[in-house]
Specification:
By secondary structure, the chain is an alpha+beta fold. It has 4 domains: 1-30; 49-57 and 379-515, Efflux pump adaptor protein, beta barrel domain (Elongation Factor Tu (Ef-tu), domain 3, Beta Barrel); 62-94 and 343-372, RNA polymerase II/Efflux pump adaptor protein, barrel-sandwich hybrid domain (OB fold (Dihydrolipoamide Acetyltransferase, E2P)), CATH 2.40.50.100; 124-310, no CATH class. 45% of the residues lie in helices and 28% in strands. The longest helix is centred in the middle third of the chain and has 51 residues, at 259-309. The chain is elongated, with a radius of gyration of 45 Å.
């Protein structure tokens, strides 16, 4: 009996212990000590950094392709690859003979004008008057010769225009000089076909009238008549050029004929048009020569009148102006002569020479490449998504692939292009960074890995960015309270770091536990 009571008492004791354990377990699961059942992260204090990481290439701080400002034949190359160049050194030059002669002529003219000014200041002599009369007579004779030369220039222009119309386009037409010419091929654009046929007819009539007018033109005709014939010749050439352009349009819209035939037509048209253009240039030049010579005659005549009337302050002032004009003319030709030389703009090393003496080069075509002596830079292209984070003056750490991640250099952003550069269809902005110190290990062409420090906050509260929820402008987290409850809490965030951290400005305290995502 006593044993049964003890067994029953033992059962109650075990049941009580089990119940207590269950209650404690439940309480633990819902208490602060049971937080281990929910993944959380603590709000901590530390540093948050925003870094833009890019790849770039080491380039010289000064690297330039040098070119001539004018076209011409290369006369001399004065350097070779690897040569050191000093600032202002002549590296290459074009043929200077023509411009050097013009400089010499302009310098001589300046001396003449200076002598004339001195003579005016000292008074006019009989010999001077005789010289000025001779100058006036020569100027008048030259003007007369220019007018007489109109006849031969017009006849030459007519010949080239006639050849362009009747010979160079002959194969394109049937019944060329009739009022109803036809093309030897089909033009896919009906308007162009109509225009080219119409202009061929009108060109034939222009040539016919022009030939008759030239028969009646004589070099001894009145200047007004000769000048009028010159103007008419330019007008005729303009019409012929228009016809040639339309003929070219027709060959660009052809059908029913082989490509070789069309190519032959085009070649003839190009030749004819070039000849017509040359004639037009000659007529325009003659017109300009006449205008310039008339000015010279008028000016020389006034100078003679002034000498005959005696020297006045106004005359002296006028001659002073002539001296200044001659001096300006000399400066102009000297500046043109300078363009025939390529000079080193800074001290550096020649890395490339792409021309040889005797070659014909065009203006602005690179002939010599020069890199400057001194510090190197990093050239990188930053995507538009990151460019707003980078400013001139930002610091950066740099590693060079050649030396591994263990060798760290420092640099600073010195330039950001204002316009974008498209790389594989993506908008980027070219950015340059200068190394803070010179180092013989830094060589042009090395690949650089660059970390640009955009912003840094020290000893601030932060959370892993992935645990912050975003809904529109709202930022919030899920906080686990000490009682085991989970609550949403709005927060204000600051700097978003490149290392996955985001600064917490308000809404949380250090040590708060946030449910991890």
């Amino acid at each position: 009996m006593e044993r049964k009571k003890k067994n029953k008492k033992r059962k109650y004791l075990i049941g009580g212990v089990v119940a207590v354990v269950v209650i404690i377990g439940v309480a633990w699961a819902f208490s602060g000590s049971g937080q281990g059942s929910v993944d959380t992260v603590k709000v901590e204090r530390g540093d948050v950094e925003s870094i833009v990481s890019v790849t770039g290439q080491v380039v010289p701080s000064k690297n330039i392709d040098l070119a001539f400002e004018k076209s011409g034949r290369v006369e001399r190359i004065r350097v070779e690859v690897g040569d050191e160049a000093y600032a202002g050194e002549v590296l290459a030059q074009l043929d200077t003979s023509e411009l050097a002669a013009q400089v010499a002529q302009a310098r001589a003219n300046l001396r003449i004008q200076e002598v004339k000014l001195k003579e005016l200041e000292e008074g006019t002599r009989a010999e001077e008057i005789a010289v000025k009369r001779a100058e006036l007579e020569k100027a008048k004779q030259d003007l007369e010769n220019y007018y007489k030369g109109i006849v031969s220039i017009l006849n030459d222009a007519y010949g080239k225009a006639d050849d362009a119309v009747r010979t160079k386009t002959d194969e394109m037409f049937l019944n060329d000089d009739s009022t109803t010419p036809r093309l030897t091929f089909t033009v896919t654009d009906s308007q162009i076909e109509t225009d080219v046929i119409s202009k061929r007819v009108s060109s034939g009539l222009i040539l016919k009238d022009w030939r008759e007018s030239l028969k009646n033109l004589d070099q001894n005709d009145a200047r007004e008549d000769l000048a009028g014939a010159l103007d008419k010749g330019k007008e005729n050439l303009e019409n012929i050029r228009d016809f040639m352009a339309t003929a070219l349009d027709a060959t660009n819209n052809y059908a029913g004929v082989s490509a070789d035939t069309i190519a032959s037509y085009k070649a003839s048209i190009y030749t004819g048009r070039s000849n017509v253009n040359t004639s037009y240039t000659s007529l325009s030049a003659q017109e300009q020569n006449i205008a310039s010579q008339e000015v010279l005659v008028e000016r020389t005549d006034r100078e003679l009148d002034l000498k005959l009337a005696g020297n006045t302050p106004e005359q002296i002032s006028a001659q002073e102006a002539q001296v200044e004009q001659a001096r300006a003319n000399l400066r102009y030709y000297e500046s043109q002569l300078a363009k025939l030389y390529v000079r080193s703009p800074f001290e550096g090393t020649v890395t490339k020479v792409v021309v040889d003496p005797g070659e014909i080069v065009s203006a602005n075509d690179p002939v010599v490449t020069l890199i400057g002596s001194g510090t190197f830079e990093i050239e990188s292209f930053i995507a538009e998504s990151d460019i707003a984070k980078v400013e001139v003056g930002d610091t950066a750490t740099v590693t060079l692939d050649a030396y591994g991640r263990g060798e760290v250099f420092t640099a600073q952003v010195t330039h950001i292009d204002l316009s974008e550069t498209l790389l594989e269809g993506v908008a980027t902005y070219k950015t340059r960074l200068s190394f803070d110190t010179e180092d013989e290990r830094i060589l042009p062409g090395l690949t650089a890995d660059v970390d640009i420090l955009h912003d840094r906050k020290e000893a601030v509260l932060y959370l892993p960015t992935r645990n912050i929820a975003v809904e529109g402008e709202r930022r919030f987290v899920t906080v686990l309270t000490e009682s085991g409850e989970t609550l949403e809490r709005d927060i204000e965030t600051g700097l978003r770091g490149s290392d996955g951290r985001t600064e917490i400005i308000s809404g949380l305290q250090q040590g708060d536990r946030v449910v991890a995502e």
